[in-house]
Design goal:
single chain, about 230 residues, alpha/beta, Dihydrofolate Reductase, subunit A, nine-stranded mixed sheet, 6 helices, globular
Length: about 230
């Protein structure tokens, strides 16, 4: 693992079904399930966004959901938007590329086509190169801390981003908004993807920090122990 000189405090947050799924099926938008969160849980999520310096999701989430990643339901400043995209292949019509009110950082690898990088820069976003073939997330955390003054980062990512952040021991807390549904599906995205583990020694340990009801949704909070 790459050493991290500095990193923000990282909270992973997600809505999740009883069977651990994030969407109805592979390729479906998470917004479909999020429509079933209580109004109070929607407000809760936006309150958390307003309390953080930056918010990060993966490029696949942007392609599927076309998220705004802004604070809308409560007073407060929208956080810096951070999108790792190794090949700089985010659609140029993506909402996060509109920086008239909220800045965006796109992290790319050195392998990203120059034409893609130039097109993103023309949109007014900050493009940073971290990693040779893929975005190096530990280095990105250090860069966000040092160059963008990010001290608290929230992840609303999919299974791939969640796994890599956990794999590199970059997540400090996990907060789950539980939805009282079961959707099933062998390939339906779950909270964490990545490689299979070989033994219980490789499990990532969590310590329950607290539980609460937010509207009709149970919220569980965990500290991550590595």
């Amino acid at each position: 693992m790459n050493p991290v000189l500095h990193k923000p405090h990282v909270l992973m947050i997600s809505e999740i079904t009883v069977d651990g799924k994030l969407t109805l099926k592979r390729g479906a938008s998470s917004k479909i399930l999020m429509k079933h969160m209580s109004h109070e849980a929607d407000i809760f999520l936006h309150e958390i966004r307003a309390a953080y310096d930056a918010i990060m999701v993966g490029s696949s989430t942007i392609k599927i959901d076309n998220s705004f990643l802004t604070v809308r339901m409560v007073p407060g400043k929208s956080p810096l938007r951070v999108i790792p995209s190794s090949m700089a292949d985010i659609p140029l019509t993506a909402n996060v590329l509109d920086t008239t009110s909220v800045p965006t950082v796109i992290a790319v690898s050195a392998a990203a086509p120059a034409t893609h990088v130039a097109a993103l820069r023309e949109k007014g976003v900050h493009v940073v190169v971290v990693g040779s073939e893929k975005v190096d997330l530990p280095i990105l955390m250090d860069l966000l801390y040092r160059e963008f003054s990010v001290r608290k980062l929230i992840i609303e990512g999919g299974p791939t981003l969640n796994w890599i952040m956990l794999h590199y021991h970059l997540v400090d807390e996990i907060r789950l908004i539980h939805l009282p549904f079961i959707v099933g599906g062998n390939d339906t995205p779950s909270l964490v993807g990545g490689m299979h583990i070989d033994s219980e020694d490789q499990m990532i340990q969590l310590v329950l920090k607290g539980t609460r009801m937010v509207g009709t949704n149970l919220v569980t909070e965990y500290m991550v122990q590595y």
